[in-house]
Amino acid sequence: MALTDADVQKQIKHMMAFIEQEASEKVEEIDAKAEEEFNIEKGRLVQTQRVKIMEHYEKKEKQIEQHKKIQMSNLMNQARLKVLKARDDMITGFYQLLEPKVTVRCRQQDVEIVQAAVDKNIPIYREAVKSNIAVRIDQERFLPSEICGGVEVYNDNGKIKVSNTLESRLELMAQQMMPEIRVNLFGANPNRKFTD
Q: Does residue 127 fall inside a structural domain?
């Protein structure tokens, strides 16, 4: 039985429809597979970069923490040095007064330290000034325990005072730095002739 042209055309159309259907399904399958592979690769890259970023910031955080510890250690050392210097600066109070009798006031908890500093500084003062000095630590009136430390040195009658406490030094520095702070905060004033 021979096929007519119409039957052949019909079979060809049917085969073409079948091939197109197969090709369309294959394209969808390839697209789906490509999309899936793209999403997997994208997720892998995102995860890799996320890990890198987290490692970077953890490293930065550790560096900052280490820097903070170093700064804190430096500040503590500076504070210790200032305390030691303040003890030795008691002799400065003696030099400023140049009195034969002086009274030293300190915090109650610092009496032993101050006594040791006085005992250490009297011979140095005698050698430098070629004069004797009598030093009494005031056991009745102490500096407030809230202050950070230091001493106040008075002449014999208590009318002249040399304050050598951390707070008085800070107050003095604040007054001395006021012009600089003013310029930093508000800028230079062309109308100001004096900077104090």
A: yes
Q: Quote the domain boundaries for residue 153.
A: 81-165
Measured from the Cβ of residue 90, the count of other Cβ atoms closer than 10 Å reads 24
Total structural domains within the chain: 1
Q: Considering the domain boundaries, does residue 175 fall inside one?
A: no
Residues 128 and 159 sit within 8 Å (Cβ to Cβ): no
In a domain, 93, yes or no: yes
Cβ–Cβ < 8 Å for 122, 133: yes
Q: Work out the number of other CB atoms within 10 angstroms of the CB of residue 182.
A: 14
- State if pTM tops 0.70: no
Helices (DSSP H) in 104-194: which residue ranges? 111-129, 166-186
**DSSP per-residue string spanning 50-104:** HHHHHHHHHHHHHHHHHHHHHHHHHHHHHHHHHHHHHHHTHHHHHHHH--SEEEE
Contact 188, 138 (CB under 8 A): no
**Model pLDDT for residues 131-185, shown as the tens digit of each residue:** 888 999 999 999 998 888 888 999 888 888 988 888 888 888 888 888 888 888 8
If you average pLDDT over residues 65-93, what whole number do you get?
75
Q: How far apart are the first and last CA of the chain?
A: 123
